Amino acid sequence: MTLEDLLPAGVSIENLLVAMSGISVLISVLAIWFSLLHRDVSSKRAKTIADQRRSLRASIMTPTRREVRLPSLTMMHKVVDKLKLLRSAQAKKVGLKLMQAGWRSNDAVVRFFFFKLALPFAFGGVSTFMLYGLEAYSLGPAGRVTAALGAVIFGAYLPDIIVRNAAEKRRTAIRKSLPDALDLMVICSEAGLALDATLARVAREMEKTAPELADEFNLTALELGFLPDRRVALQNLALRTDITVLRGMVGTLLQAERYGTPLAHALRVLSAESREERAMRAEEKAARLPALLTVPMIVFILPPLFIVLIGPAALRTMDSFGKM
């Protein structure tokens, strides 16, 4: 079986090379364009924090009149509202997952449910049209059914995969920048700042280097100023991030709030522990590196090495046997 047999009917290798070259040029142009494009993320983040401040003030000042309303009657909202997915038992879990990924609006939950419903039909329809309508690939009946079902399953799990990857990337970024943030919190607490002022100042200082952690600290500082129970604000921080070090920091802050213990010493201990954890993670990755390099070494390095070393001797042996 050659490469031409795997291509759809009417598509040659030359057409495939031209298409791949065009896609490569387009990706290169877009990469250069986005690298030169200046993005002011601070203004967008300030607008988001202001919106969250207004929503928190509205939820506290008028708790009995506040209702869950959809921002606009778009097609996504109509479909999700008609199926009553926002009132299901999974809506709260989905909202928590989206918060951990950095998407906190009600629109994010609506979009998730809509794409969760629409993508299986879209992927299944496209794959069915390609396999049965255009007959792009010469597969048997069982192969076509398997490919169509695989496309439907992939479309059903694609939103979960995207949200899970985004949450993991966000947790990794927060975990890397947390020791520096704890050091700044120690300095602010020793200077006599309150907890909400400390979080707001650390978020302002780390807005450029660690936007994810600055966003979480800003939101926690807002909740500490607006929510009647400060414990709820700190517990929300641990719930949104789902990081062990931050859960320990929240427990320490709750203890300091309850018993009046000195905060700077506890934060200094947490900072040392987080730095040790980061060093241990780096050592763990370094220890895994030889095992990860074994397979590429066997597949890509040893065969050319054997060809270079044994090839000339094998050729000379073949020549000598041919002369005999």
TrEMBL record:
Keywords: Cell membrane, Membrane, Transmembrane, Transmembrane helix
Localisation per UniProt entry: Cell membrane
Residue stretches spanning the membrane: 16-37, 113-134, 146-167, 289-315
Membrane topology category: Multi-pass membrane protein
InterPro entries: T2SS_GspF_dom
Type II secretion system protein GspF domain mapped to chain residues: 182-310
UniProt main location, coarse: membrane
GO CC annotation terms, alphabetical: plasma membrane
PANTHER family: INTEGRAL MEMBRANE PROTEIN-RELATED (PTHR35007), PILUS ASSEMBLE PROTEIN (PTHR35007:SF2)
Name of the protein this chain belongs to: Type II secretion system F family protein
Organism: Pelagibius litoralis
